[in-house]
Amino acid sequence: MFLIFLNLKILSLDNLEELFCLKHSHHSTSMMAKGELFSIYLKTGKKRLLLTIVSGGLIFLTIVSLVMIVYTHRFQSFQRFQEEHVNWSDDGFISVSSNQIKSGLLDFGSDYLTNLTTDFSTLTTSLIPRVRVVNSTTAMSVQINEFNSSIPGEPWLTHELMTVDDVAFTVVGSCLVAGRLPRNSSELLWVKNNETTISLNEMRLYYSITELNSDPLNYTIVGIVDNLDAAFIEAGLSADVFHWSFDNLAFYNYHGINRFLTNYSLFNTVTHEMGTFYGVVTHLVDFTYDLTDLKLNALIKYLQLFPKSNDLAISPFLNSLVELCPDLKDLFVKFSDFWVEETIKILSINSPLFLIVGLLSVVALNIGSKDLSNAFRKMKLYGISFTLIQRFIFLENLLLTSVSAIGGVCLGFFIGFLSTRHVQAEHLPFFRGFLTEPLLFITLITFIGAFFALSIYIQHSIAKKTTETISEEYQKKRRKIRNLFSTNEFRLIIIALFFSLVSVLLFVGYNQNQSAGSITSSLSYLTLLYFMISCSIAFLLTFTFLIIARLNALFWSVLTNYLWKRRQNMAVLSMKHLVAQRDIFQVAVLGALIFGTVILPGVAMSRSLDVNTKKEAVLAMGGVNIAIMHWVDPSDELDAYLNNISEIRAYTEVTIFKLKESNEEFTFPFSFTINYIGLEDPTTFIDVVDLSQAADITVNKEDVLALEEDMTVLMDRSFARKNKLTSGAAFSTATFTRFALTNLTFINSFDIFPLVPLPKKPLISKDYEVFSLISNRETARDIVGNVAFSTEVASNTVKLIQPVNESAIPTVLSKLAALNLSAISYNQLLNEMSLNIDTFTQNNLFFFSILSSLLLVFVGFFTSIRIFDERKRIIDSLYRVGARKQQLIGYFSLEHVLINSLPLLLAILSSLFLVKVLALNFLGAKEYYYPYHPGIPWWLFLLVFLLGQALLLVGWLAVLFPAIYRFKVEKQE
After folding, report:
1. Roughly what angle, to the nearest 10 degrees, separates helices 586-603 and 605-620?
2. CB 366 within 8 A of CB 51
């Protein structure tokens, strides 16, 4: 009997009847029979299992790869954040510092500074072991006093005697502006300041305590140093040690009127010679850090390690309290705040990924569903219980999910390890950090669980249908209300509402535990929060897409019924088949909707950003090639310098006023913000600014020249239309000035004008107006001078300069710089604005375009398999009445094109709105002067539409073409 069971491994499901009999003949071997049954069950679906494992592995590979991209992006963002926002030599913080009141004899010893540096460095690395100290600047100072009898009441002045380590003192020597370095303990260097004046070789008398009966020490100022900050920063040393200050009650602040310097050896001698001392001794060590080994997902945990202000760390060397690493703490807080915003952007922008991966999972798990259904029917026919079939489904999907996940994740780790070796010199610690990344665990656990649950659900649904009789199926069709609650749409909206509820609870919990100015929740918590929000968005989008797919099917149902009544031919019959078996096309429709939604933001975003950024830069520059954005010259004295620059053809001034009125006392009919542009000379403005070249200017030269007349204005179109103004009409300023100026004349309205911000109202703006005015500068000053005292007024003058030609721009800029005038060119501004565009998100969108394109081929392939399996009998009957194979392929393909046309077109058109939302909220684009337009040409819409259809047909024909040509009509008896 045992040998019989072994030989059963080569049987197909057609042999299950024998095995079923054997199973009942020997109860002792029933467990073995079940194992053999499961083995045969797996073998009969080898092709289906292999395709599903490969597809599932690719899904998990995609997930791991994307998390690695995000992880690498965070590491590189942290490095860039340090470069852009942190200068360890001049950040306003001292890494470790302390001071205390000391009395008696001071004797520090020859190795004091070295031991101090080592002790403070140990305190830093013990606080956060992954922080490495690569450089340090050490300083210490003592308080000295000077008696000045000319000061009544408190005749004592406080000064500071400081020393720095030997490396730093060599830089001090390079800052000598007079004299020489000290050679003995009675000689000092004076640090030049703007408060006092000390002459070279001047004799000074200082006391170690504020008592006249103590022994004073006589010092000679042998050298004067200046510009220490610049020299130390250039040398990579800390300039912060010269600006120490303590706000903590544990330490002592005093204002040293003068600072004197000497090297440490002489400093130690000086302090020893003081004898009795009573005053403040300060210790300062500032570090340069290497933070490449930090675990960035643990920044909040690091922040919790820093000592509280009422429980400071203690230095073993000094046996006193120290302020420990405020520079690191400040960096961690700022980057945490920054990365919270980045997390929101990254997970929000990656919401379509969950949609794509979810649809790929559905397609992967439905591979071979027809064969699986036949297998379940045979198992039922051979008497295998539904409970045992459910057990097989569970075990198969446990195996399938495990192999897919392990294979995909391991391959993803391997590819990620190889592809990120260039990111960091010490790659292993970097990669180990990725293995503990919270986002990796969250996404993998979620998708593994979802993949497993979805695969069981799909196979269970298939198995359950095989157990229903025809009468049961008919009864289910009659129960429409009940069936409504079992639709995919209903299930999805329930899941979406669940994820949304969890997201809301997590968000409320975060807000309740967030203190002002700092982040108290961990990045893992935030990652989970925004991951749940992204999943909610993905499920809601899927629900919306399913509704669109159902409406699409309804449209074709109505259309085909109408056509069938008037014309009965093969094309209309094929369309009727489309409606009758619309569930086959549901996945393809979802794929078309996803593709149409993400393709334009991916392939056209770069061009759209480029067009809008150029127009925004033109308007921000005032429509000229060179501008001085903050021009201060009330007496017009600097114009003479501009006249001497032969490369300048013309220039003019524009003064920008911003008037804001909160209207708290209800003085006016509404609160308002007015952007008011005053042209110094409208005629010169026309000469300098070429309005025809500026971005979509709607004002002509004659309108601007009319502003030469006092009390004439141009107004933005929306406000002019609201006030029903026509050219030449009188306009009263009573709604925004103290006294009504009724002699204003309205010239014309405009939409876009150089240096004029768009009049954007707040979202809730019932009684709030935002509008723009343009006049000559004298009129503007009269109106601005007449506003209410409660109105906030801000002004700025911009100098617009037009060179003789574009090649003269660098020369003009250099000559202006020589005059200490900070000018910027159009190309410089455009470059700055382009650098602010988020390239990571832009590349992400392009990746989605590629992924959605592959998805279309995949769903076309899958849909073609399903339609061929479902229509074998129809194909057979059509062959018998004379249909040709080319006709069948053509009609079936026509169905596929038609059913996807409307969803594809609808999604492509709706993505126009998405392009703007993504550009302004996620990519760093601006619409301050110019409204953002997608800027996508009509032919690109057509091209994308045709590309979507072509990609669907590639997968579709790859299966349908050979399948129909291999098809043979079954012989009838």
Report:
1. 30
2. no
Q: Which amino acid is at 903?
A: P
Q: Which of 753, 749, 698 is nearest to 929 (CA)?
A: 753
C-alpha 395/C-alpha 121 separation (Å) is 57
Please name the residues in contact with 852: beta carbons below 8 A apart, sequence gap of 6 or more: 352, 356, 591, 594, 595, 598, 599, 602
Give how far the C-alpha of residue 573 lies from the chain's centroid of Cα atoms, to the nearest Å. Answer: 51
Alpha carbon distances (Å) from 364 to 406, 457, 934:
17, 13, 35
Tokens of 307: 């000592």
Strands 176-179 and 217-225: antiparallel
DSSP run (H or E) holding 415? helix 386-419
* Burial of 940 (C-beta count, 10 Å sphere; 0-12/13-18/19+): middle
Residues 578/556, Cβ–Cβ less than 8 Å? yes
Question: Which residues fall within 8 angstroms of residue 529, CB to CB, at 6 or more apart?
Answer: 503, 506, 507, 510
Q: Which positions of the chain have pLDDT values less than 70?
A: 1-38, 40-45, 153, 248-249, 351-355, 357-371, 382, 425-426, 466-492, 510-528, 531, 563-565, 567-583, 693-698, 741-742, 763-765, 878, 880-883, 967-973
What count of other Cβ atoms lies within 10 Å of the Cβ of residue 304?
10
pLDDT, tens digit, 9 for 90 and up, residues 260-274: 999 999 999 988 888
Give dist(CA 877, CA 116) in Å, integer.
95
- pLDDT digit string (tens) for 658-710? 999 888 878 888 888 999 999 999 999 998 987 776 666 667 888 899 999 98
Structure-token pair, residue 539: 């499920």
The amino acid at residue 524 is: S
Tokens of 221: 């100022």
Q: In what order do the strands lie in the sheet with 671-679?
A: 730-731, 744-750, 712-716, 768-776, 671-679, 648-661, 792-803, 626-628, 824-825
Given its phi and psi angles, is residue 93 left (phi above 0), alpha (psi -120 to 50 degrees) or beta?
A: beta
Token pair 């140093």: residue: 225
CA–CA gap between residue 203 and residue 220 (Å, rounded): 5
What is the per-residue burial (b if ≥16 Cβ within 10 Å, else e) of 161-191?
bbbbbeebbebbeebeeebebbeebbbbbbb
Q: What sign has the CA pseudo-torsion 608, 613, 614, 620?
A: positive
Query: What H or E segment, with its residue span, contains residue 315?
Result: strand 313-315
Among candidates 837, 949, 355, which has minimal Cα distance to 605? Answer: 837
Do residues 781 and 773 lie in contact, with contact meaning Cβ atoms separated by under 8 Å?
no
- Give the three-state DSSP class for 589: helix
Is 550 exposed, middle or buried (CB count within 10 Å of its CB: 0-12, 13-18, 19+)?
middle
pLDDT in tens, 567-600: 666 666 666 665 555 667 777 777 787 888 888 8
Distance CA 619, CA 582 (A): 52
Q: 655: which strand partners?
A: 678, 797
CB 872 within 8 A of CB 969: no
The pLDDT of residue 18? 43
CA 737 → CA 408, 546, 575, 723, 740, distances in Å?
Answer: 69, 56, 69, 16, 7
Q: Confirm if 408 and 59 have CB atoms less than 8 A apart.
A: yes
Phi, psi of 805 (to 5 degrees): -160, 175
pLDDT of res. 209: 86
What is the structure's pLDDT at 449?
84
What's the pLDDT score for residue 19? 41
383 φ/ψ sector (left φ>0, alpha ψ -120 to 50, else beta): left
For 272, the enclosing helix (H) or strand (E) is helix 264-273
Rounded Cα distance, 223 and 220, in Å: 9
CA 99 – CA 935 distance, rounded (Å): 62
The strand pair at 156-164 and 259-262 is best described as parallel
